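INFO  loader      accepted 1 record
INFO  loader      residues=306
INFO  predictor   begin
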Amino acid sequence: LSVMISLSYVSSTSNPSSVSIVAASSTTGLILENRPRNLPSKSVAEERKHQKLYQEIVATARKKELRKAEEAIKKEERKKQKDMIIADAQKQWSEILPRWETDHNTKRVRELWWLGLPPGIRGTVWKKAIGNELNISHDLYKICLRRCTERLELAEQRDRSDSSLSVKSLSREGSVEVIHLDVQRTFPTLGFFQESGPYHTTLRDILGAYACYRPDVGYVQGMSFIAGVLLLNMEAADAFICLANLLNRPSYLAFFRVEQDLVRLTYLYLAYLSIYLSTCPSTCGLFVNLHLSISTCISLSIYLHV
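INFO  predictor   done
INFO  writer      dumping tokens
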């Protein structure tokens, strides 16, 4: 029980000869105490009523604690079962990874995909699944990152009114200047990507480097969520490589290229969401409840099923 229960002898002034052993629980046990001498003593009926009431309170508290204990046991059992499933999945993936080229399209691997990837090998599997068709190296990431840093420093030195015009006339590399706004809004409940979070600067660097790597695309709202998920599971340079290769696929470019006709693109978005809602209603409903934009919903849905 959440309160200490002690046994005490309580004698009644109304019936001095009767002495009973009752449980006293914190202030709840005061109901069993005798009244002060300057007040009328309890009658036998009232004393029995109070004892019964106290026993009911203690029984209710005991049931509550037993329920909590049972829930804790069930929770622990679920955790153990989940840990066993993860351990078994990790063992199976460790057997698949060395034979990735021959096994990645098999039925067994597809079934494992839908069961979810164990956290320990998630980044490794994602890197193999996404690949590096663009042959991007870690050195190229550093070059793009330096270009992004120069871009930001240049923007700080120029007058904002002139800067916006000159940046647009050059390329969409100028979108690096608005990345910090979206980084703050990336998975806010986690607190990893906000200004005081451990991945704030790294996520901003990855997105800025991508905007400089693909100035024809630049940074588009929604990319921060994809890059954020990647960054949580791999090093910054690897996250950049995966992001660039992932966004190079036709399905992504179709949604992230901002020069497309907005009305036509909206119809495509709505059509996709309609299909996605009918096939994966729970996931789609979660995106809607999080008030994510249409483009972000679609970006995440494509990414989750890549």
